[in-house]
């Protein structure tokens, strides 16, 4: 591993055309301006576009030997056999695209050869390219002229804040289902700034929708939790930097959090959460750059559906199954821990046993058989890591206790079965 980059990766996936990396053009002299011919965003459905900009004015470009009329001034050295220059100076978004494409190719080469990821995904390359882009002129990213800024090879592969070398963490292996999350803990000194970029190659949207309709299929959300409880959400920016609170983004497949160098914030353990608000199974890529180190931790969690009976309104003495499920949303594998399922109403324990370890990002479940011998509501409680044998980001000791799930199962008398109705009176 090259110094300053660490993480894990997986295989490459294709990226739908509506969510590919787009670039605009900036001037080369003076720098820091977006060229007046560069197309501006946002897209018709409101997404941030362009993603990035790159130099596209007075770029020394190849001139064909067959070209009878030069449309740009001579540049570089060398001539064709007919005496015409090999190169001429051109301007346009085509030149900016070549610069952006070449830069991304060099970033890909660096990730392949120095970081050791043989097949970096499209989303990882996009996240890496965006994460350390340079905000041109007045701090105001994201905006319709430059998107997330001007792509920077140096800042991407060798990030620094003054003389301080910054570290870059990448995750290219996680896949989330709707309703699940991934949680990362970092020891951070925010005085050197912090850049976080989440990108995913979303599923293709409906071809029948109008161009002004939202095209996002899988809605992932990026959230940063500071040690003092301050919450930053993806793409909530003012004057080029993240501000606390705000609403989650349900439009873009790129989400960023950016804290400025010199930020007065507590050092210590910061948490990054990637949550899947709705849609289908979705892999993603995450890039984090700062004066930070990953603090691998376990975070076992229950969720809606952790207690899943074959019938929510069984008859008394019915033989039913109850599936119990839990998830490790942390970045460290868990050792063995105890699982307990209780019927609080009856005062009985339905399951009490130790489970073997659970890898980071893994889901586990088991199924038990049970018969209720009394009618009425039965309040069920599932507790994972019941003996608190695992040190976690969130449990009954630290953070929010996400190790307990409650559910009420209504047991009916023989010959009577209760059905839950929705707000319209339908079963």
Describe this structure as you would to a colleague.
The protein has 427 residues and is mainly beta. 9% of the residues lie in helices and 35% in strands. Strand 13 (231-238) and strand 14 form a beta hairpin. The radius of gyration is 27 Å and the shape is elongated. 38% of the residues are buried. Residues 8-20 have low confidence and may be disordered.
Protein traits:
5-stranded mixed sheet; 35% strand; 427 residues; 6-stranded antiparallel sheet; mainly beta; elongated; 3 helices
Helix and strand arrangement:
Layout: E1 5-9, E2 23-26, E3 52-55, E4 59-62, E5 87-90, H1 93-115, H2 122-131, H3 153-157, E6 160-161, E7 164-165, E8 167-172, E9 175-176, E10 181-188, E11 194-199, E12 219-225, E13 231-238, E14 241-244, E15 254-259, E16 268-278, E17 282-283, E18 285-290, E19 292-294, E20 300-301, E21 307-309, E22 319-328, E23 337-343, E24 348-355, E25 363-371, E26 376-384, E27 404-411
Parallel strand pairs: 1-8, 2-3
Antiparallel strand pairs: 4-5, 6-7, 8-18, 9-17, 10-16, 10-19, 11-15, 11-18, 12-13, 12-16, 13-14, 20-22, 21-22, 22-25, 23-24, 23-26, 26-27
**Gyration radius over CA:** 27 Å
Show unreliable segments: 8-20
Helix fraction? under 10%
- The quaternary structure here is single chain
Number of helices: 3
Strand portion, in percent?
Answer: 35-45%
Mean pLDDT: 89
Please count the beta strands (DSSP E, at least 2 residues each).
27
Which secondary-structure class do the elements indicate? mainly beta
Order of strands, widest sheet: 14-13-12-16-10-19
Distance between the termini: 57 Å
Morphology: elongated
Order of helices and strands: EEEEEHHHEEEEEEEEEEEEEEEEEEEEEE
Largest sheet: 6 strands, antiparallel
